[in-house]
Write a structure and sequence with these properties.
alpha+beta, S16 Ribosomal Protein, Chain: A, 5-stranded mixed sheet, 5 strands, 31% strand, globular
Protein backbone atom coordinates (compact mmCIF):
# COMPACT_ATOMS: atom_id res chain seq x y z
CA UNK A 1 0.00 0.00 0.00
CA UNK A 2 1.46 3.36 -1.00
CA UNK A 3 0.43 6.28 1.15
CA UNK A 4 -0.08 9.86 -0.02
CA UNK A 5 -0.48 13.01 2.02
CA UNK A 6 -3.12 15.05 0.25
CA UNK A 7 -6.09 17.37 0.67
CA UNK A 8 -9.61 16.09 1.33
CA UNK A 9 -12.40 18.57 0.61
CA UNK A 10 -15.07 18.92 3.30
CA UNK A 11 -16.43 22.44 2.65
CA UNK A 12 -19.77 23.62 1.31
CA UNK A 13 -20.27 24.72 -2.32
CA UNK A 14 -18.36 27.96 -2.99
CA UNK A 15 -16.83 27.72 0.52
CA UNK A 16 -13.85 25.36 0.23
CA UNK A 17 -12.31 23.86 3.35
CA UNK A 18 -9.85 20.99 3.35
CA UNK A 19 -8.34 18.40 5.66
CA UNK A 20 -4.73 17.32 5.23
CA UNK A 21 -4.84 13.52 5.39
CA UNK A 22 -2.62 10.47 5.04
CA UNK A 23 -4.55 8.15 2.72
CA UNK A 24 -4.03 5.18 0.43
CA UNK A 25 -3.05 6.44 -3.02
CA UNK A 26 -5.82 4.43 -4.71
CA UNK A 27 -8.62 5.79 -2.49
CA UNK A 28 -11.20 8.28 -3.73
CA UNK A 29 -10.78 11.97 -2.97
CA UNK A 30 -13.18 11.77 -0.05
CA UNK A 31 -12.39 8.18 0.94
CA UNK A 32 -11.60 7.12 4.49
CA UNK A 33 -8.18 8.45 5.54
CA UNK A 34 -5.59 6.56 7.57
CA UNK A 35 -4.93 9.66 9.69
CA UNK A 36 -6.04 13.31 9.70
CA UNK A 37 -2.95 15.51 9.92
CA UNK A 38 -4.45 19.01 9.84
CA UNK A 39 -6.72 21.55 8.16
CA UNK A 40 -6.38 24.08 5.34
CA UNK A 41 -8.74 27.04 4.84
CA UNK A 42 -7.88 28.90 1.62
CA UNK A 43 -10.27 31.78 2.34
CA UNK A 44 -8.53 32.98 5.52
CA UNK A 45 -6.13 35.90 5.19
CA UNK A 46 -3.43 34.43 7.45
CA UNK A 47 -2.57 31.13 9.15
CA UNK A 48 -4.39 29.14 6.48
CA UNK A 49 -2.70 25.84 7.30
CA UNK A 50 -2.82 24.04 10.65
CA UNK A 51 -0.86 20.80 10.52
CA UNK A 52 0.75 18.42 13.01
CA UNK A 53 4.33 18.65 11.75
CA UNK A 54 5.56 15.73 13.87
CA UNK A 55 2.98 13.39 12.28
CA UNK A 56 3.67 14.84 8.81
CA UNK A 57 7.38 14.13 9.22
CA UNK A 58 6.62 10.63 10.54
CA UNK A 59 4.59 9.77 7.43
CA UNK A 60 7.24 11.21 5.10
CA UNK A 61 9.94 9.14 6.86
CA UNK A 62 7.86 5.97 6.47
CA UNK A 63 7.63 6.51 2.72
CA UNK A 64 4.49 8.59 2.19
CA UNK A 65 4.65 11.13 -0.61
CA UNK A 66 3.06 14.54 -0.22
CA UNK A 67 1.00 15.83 -3.13
CA UNK A 68 2.38 18.87 -4.95
CA UNK A 69 -0.18 21.15 -3.29
CA UNK A 70 0.49 19.90 0.24
CA UNK A 71 4.25 20.05 -0.27
CA UNK A 72 4.07 23.69 -1.39
CA UNK A 73 1.77 24.63 1.53
CA UNK A 74 4.11 23.03 4.07
CA UNK A 75 7.11 24.72 2.47
CA UNK A 76 5.41 28.13 2.75
CA UNK A 77 4.49 27.50 6.39
CA UNK A 78 8.01 26.58 7.56
CA UNK A 79 10.08 29.56 8.73
CA UNK A 80 12.97 30.67 6.53
CA UNK A 81 16.40 29.78 7.72
Amino acid sequence: MSVRIRLQRIGRPKRPYYRVVAIDQRAKRNGKPIEILGQYDPLLTENKLNIKMDRFEYWVKTGAQASDTVASLVKKQQPAG
